[in-house]
Design brief:
Layout (H helix, E strand, L loop, with lengths): L10 E3 L6 H17 L2 E5 L5 H15 L3 H6 L10 E3 L5 E2 L2 E2 L3 E6 L31 H26 L16 E7 L8 E7 L6 E6 L8 E4 L5 E3 L6 E6 L1 H6 L9 E5 L4 E7 L8 H6 L2 H7 L1 H5 L8 H4 L5 H12 L1 H7 L1 H8 L3
Parallel strand pairs: 1-2
Antiparallel strand pairs: 2-12, 3-6, 4-5, 6-7, 7-14, 8-13, 9-12, 9-14, 10-11, 10-13
């Protein structure tokens, strides 16, 4: 099976879906990307140019705000893990990531309250922090989240068809909240490249839709193929990079892999905007594994029997039965200051449960 032995990232033209004469071509291309790469570009995606350019132009201004303006929206203020993180605040693969970022999400009111009977992981949902020094940012970000939410839904209809499933098969797995990161990788002063973010699979979303918001000559994103080779994923104007999240790998029985990727810092500032399509917090391990198991065993029997179909999933290996609790644990372990401040009752359990 040729899964993950790719040497380049396929470009899928979503406009091909609009014509019966080209739709089959699109579905064949998408099937290959889903089962053999795990990474793809989408072009002619339907997100208005102005929505994208407004966001791109906002990034240098946002990250040029003075330290006190960034501190105003610091992530440590938010029980929802939304807000600003400075360079060096996170580690991946045992090394410090060289990036600063602001995390936003679908704007929701906080429903969780002590004694409400609502699961604690639902406290991850809630309102954003908006910088008072840059009030124009909020409508730009909220419009972008709405457009990417719609793109994600349009894309899932095609994914289901490419995998020989009813069109809305994947919708019941989705959350009502999706997350967005605005990311700045500062130029590296070192002679060699350094870690912008280390090798990882996307663990927090169903699918990721990435806007590479710097010019094409500013490189950094790479995906790992099955031969252990890092393949460049350059910025292509007019496209989003789209990749599979770990929950989707589980639900598709390992047929559609979440691909390891990384970002290298370089001599230029780099801006990046990943949108993480949210997974329903109440999703259980049994539901994730069993719901579509029969379909993928029947239609992808050869792939399923290969070693490539083995699923490497922290969710399945972990001690907690729901996706939401697994995600809350991950967030607390990644941002321990937030965990100690807002989740004292479970903090020690999640930190020491290895």
């Amino acid at each position: 099976m040729p899964s993950h032995a790719f040497t380049s990232i396929p470009i899928i033209d979503l406009s091909l879906a609009s014509s019966p004469t080209t739709r089959d071509q699109l579905l064949r291309q998408l099937h290959h990307a889903l089962t053999s790469v795990g990474f793809l570009y989408v072009s002619n995606h339907g997100v208005p140019d102005k929505v994208i350019t407004d966001l791109v132009h906002s990034l240098p201004r946002l990250f040029a705000l003075p330290p006190d303006a960034k501190e105003e929206i610091a992530l440590c203020n938010s029980p929802h893990f939304l807000g600003y993180s400075s360079v060096g605040a996170e580690m991946t693969a045992g090394k410090t990531d060289r990036r600063e970022q602001v995390e936003f999400a679908t704007e929701l009111e906080e429903r969780w309250k002590p004694g409400s009977g609502i699961p604690l992981y639902e406290r991850l949902k809630g309102p954003n922090q908006w910088p008072s020094h840059y009030p124009a940012l909020r409508p730009i970000v909220e419009t972008y989240i709405r457009e990417l939410t719609a793109l994600g839904e349009r894309f899932l209809l095609l994914v289901a068809e490419a995998l020989s499933l009813p069109s809305e098969t994947f919708f019941p797995f989705l959350s009502d909240q999706h997350r967005l990161k605005l990311v700045h990788y500062p130029a590296s002063s070192e002679e060699d490249t350094s870690q912008g973010v280390g090798p990882h699979k996307d663990s927090s979303g169903w699918w990721t839709f990435l806007l590479q918001a710097s010019p094409p000559e500013v490189k950094g994103l790479q995906a790992l193929n099955r031969h252990g080779e890092w393949i460049d994923v350059p910025a292509i104007p007019g496209t989003f990079v789209v990749n599979i999240g770990q929950a989707f790998e589980v639900v598709t029985n390992g047929v559609c892999k979440a691909t390891v990727h990384r970002v290298l810092s370089g001599p230029h500032d780099r801006f990046s905007v990943p949108f993480f399509q949210g997974v329903r917090g109440s999703l259980t391990k049994a539901e994730a594994v069993e719901t579509l198991k029969g379909h993928f065993q029947e239609h992808f029997q050869q792939e399923d029997e290969s070693e490539e179909a083995q699923i490497d999933s922290p969710f399945l290996r972990g001690k907690y039965d729901t996706w939401g609790e697994s995600q809350l644990r991950t967030k607390i372990r990644s941002h321990r200051d937030v965990g100690r401040k807002f989740y004292a009752d479970v903090y020690d359990r999640y930190i020491n449960d290895d």
